[in-house]
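User: Can you predict the 3D structure for this chain?
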Amino acid sequence: MTTSRVPAAVAALLEILRAAPGLSEVLVVDGPPAVNMSERLRIYVGWQPGGEAAVNLAQEFAGAGARRRDEDFTITCYAESRAGDKDMALQRNRVFELVAEVETALRATDAAPTAPTLGGAVLWAHLTAGDLMQEQGPDGALAGLAFTVSCRARL
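Assistant: Here is the predicted structure, written as structure tokens:
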């Protein structure tokens, strides 16, 4: 018996995003960033700037008898688009395009009927919140979108 579906869900989310055709040019990172920041398009799974938790979770009994538990959790994620110029609108639009590809990857299709369940790791998963961040720095415009993937599992 497993105590949480979080490890399986995070692994499945990473696998789905890395295989998504619309994200083929994007570096999908497990956890916080490394020192090398040369990639212009990135999605982090299990990390957000200033965030304290990779995943927030809660469990409760699924019914009388205490035999099954329901687990609700949110996986923190962050998409980023940066460029060497000052065109903020271009980076803002691009980061929303990246998150749209994440949302598309989590929808059921004929080719990926189990995508909303993260390959069976959870009952369902979907995007539920986001915060846009923008910055003009010496290296140009940067737009970041912190978002969460919310999940429900039965243990």
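The first strand starts at residue 27 and ends at 30. Strands lie at 27-30, 41-45, 55-61, 69-82, 124-137, 140-154.
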